[in-house]
Amino acid sequence: MTAQNSATRPTSIAVRPTTGPGRAAGTGADAGTATGSGAKTGAGSDTATGPGSATGTATGPAGSRSGTLLALLGVVAFSLTFPATAWGLESFGPWSLVALRSLLAAAIAGVFLLAGRVRPPARAHWAGLAVVAGGVVVGFPLLTTLALQTSTTSHAAVVVGLLPLTTAALSAVRTGARPSRRFWVAAVAGAAIVLGFTLAQSGGSASVGDAYLFGALLVCAAGYTEGARLARTLPGWQVIGWALVLCLPLSAAGSVLGLAYEPVHLTGHGLIGLVWAAAGSTFLGLYVWYRGMAAIGAPRASQLQLAQPLLTLLWSVVLLGEEMSPATPLAACAVLVCITATQRVK
Q: How far is Cα 87 from Cα 205, in angstroms, rounded to an integer?
């Protein structure tokens, strides 16, 4: 643009392109990256630069690598959830364990939210946060904990083996994403490998907890999908933080009732399991997971979870003393091939 003045020489004025609706204003993997020094817009958000903006969504190879690494860290944290829950059940009943896990995670999230003086999210975000809370804060932990009373961790890994495919499918319906046919072929192949492997490990027999496991699969996929959508406008840690705070009255009441009616036998394993399930799986794991999904998209991030059941089996051997089949390394290699395929196609 050229500014013309009769008393001065023509001067060129550089005008930077503005960020339009729906266009990312940042290039970092963090959905909470501010645009400009000290910029902070939107209730409870560190970013937001227009309607529907995906502020902070990573772009380019560097952002994609960063998002993939964050999602992988989330997978590692989640892979320890079942062993930690098994340890926690040594000390607490299933209802007490889930309630205390949510209560402790909410306390951690509350400290971070207060320290950062984060304002509550906009009213439009609360419905999505309720889905996240119902799926990943209450639904999945409760249903899997109930299932682990009668199922082994290897059998429960069936849920995790099918979760990536379910998350990708729900994400496509919810967000309108349309992964390619090659993506779906690789995803279904990976899910089939994991499902066959985990069923073989558990002898292929159905357990009383199967209904709980498949219910957990559906509610968790819904929570992941909605959380990934919210993480495009809110920082990932605030998504899970506010979801935990939303459940605080329920988790507090559940803790009181659970401890009153279920026996408690405190052990070292039980306390470690509770702390990890709350701080590691529920808060830290979901924090990095939602940041990763916001950066690389829910369908691609979800396929990284194909490695989660195999990691869970590894921790089960190391921490719980369960035996590992010689087929495990072969299954791991096959799953990694499927993961690589889903990461290379769009």
A: 24
- Rg for the chain (alpha carbons), in Å? 22
**pLDDT by residue (tens digit) across 102-152?**
999 999 999 999 998 999 999 999 999 999 999 999 999 999 999 888 887
CB 161 within 8 A of CB 221: no
Closest among 100, 167, 154 to 310, alpha carbons compared? 154
47 close to 282: Cβ distance less than 8 angstroms: no
Beta bridge partners of 12: 2
Give dist(CA 295, CA 55) in Å, integer.
10
What is the number of other CB atoms lying within 10 angstroms of the CB of residue 298? 29
Q: What are the counts of helices (DSSP H) followed by strands (DSSP E) for the chain? A: 15, 2
CA 294 to chain centroid: 10
Say what the pTM is: 0.70
Take residue 54 and report the two structure tokens written for it.
Answer: 């995906």
Name the residue among 153, 182, 179 with its Cα closest to residue 167: 179
Which structure tokens are listed for 315? 């921790």
Q: What are phi and psi of 147, to 5 degrees?
A: -65, -35
Helix axes 94-115, 268-275, angle to 10 degrees: 50
